[in-house]
Design goal:
The protein has about 210 residues and is mainly α. It has one domain: Ferritin, core subunit, four-helix bundle (Ferritin). It starts with a helix and ends with a helix. The N terminus is likely disordered.
């Protein structure tokens, strides 16, 4: 083979190799992206546990105490569902029980996400400010209600539940001014609005009895 012909073949081979390398260079092999081409996950896409945000001691105490407070309201309301003479009082009691159960679950999930006790003091917390009703503990109020029947039960239930709701509003107002967790603040505002509306409703029912 002549030297000139051999030189032409070698040059052609080099050109072909460079062309193939250029075709393969379109694929991004950046170390910042997985080899399979899938996008790397970012912290923004990490799912957040409900309530798993910054919180302070006031948020914790609000959730713990309001759980116990709601449990007391549900116990009173369930008794009214069984004992109430008025259909309006019975319907109100059913709404109270149905609304506060999910709120207990919500606050419990926050405390668990925060690594806090869900109810460290148990029912002893009923002695806390905002828990008593007309100077009575929850146990004393329940004992009185269980001794009544008919219209007398309805009237006393409404009076005690109004006092109970006012205690919840007071606790929620404290949380709204001192708490830090956004979801707990939202719930406190909702409790204030909902329970003040129910207080008005119960006061109107009392006038009809």
């Amino acid at each position: 083979m002549k030297p000139k012909t051999r030189l032409t073949i070698v040059a052609g081979g080099i050109a072909l190799a460079l062309t193939l390398a250029a075709c393969g260079g379109g694929e991004d092999t950046s170390p910042n992206e997985p080899a399979d081409g899938s996008a790397a996950e970012t912290t923004d896409s990490t799912p957040q546990i409900e309530g798993h945000e910054v919180h302070n001691d006031d948020d914790t105490q609000f959730a713990q105490m309001m759980i116990v407070h709601h449990e007391g309201a549900i116990e009173m309301a369930d008794l009214a569902v069984e004992r109430a003479d008025s259909q309006e009082v019975r319907a109100l009691a059913e709404r109270i029980s149905a609304a506060q159960g999910p709120e207990i679950q919500q606050m419990t999930s926050w405390l668990e996400a925060w690594g806090e006790e869900t109810s460290p003091m148990g029912h002893e917390a009923m002695d806390h400010e905002g828990m008593d009703m007309e100077g009575m503990s929850h146990e004393e109020a329940m004992a009185e209600l269980e001794s009544l029947s008919g219209a007398e039960f309805d009237r006393r239930f409404l009076e005690l539940m109004i006092a109970h709701h006012r205690g919840a509003v007071e606790m929620a107002q404290t949380q709204f001014s001192e708490g830090q967790n956004r979801q707990a603040l939202d719930l406190a505002k909702m409790i204030i609005d909902d329970q003040q509306a129910e207080i008005t409703e119960m006061e109107e029912l009392l006038e009809l009895l």
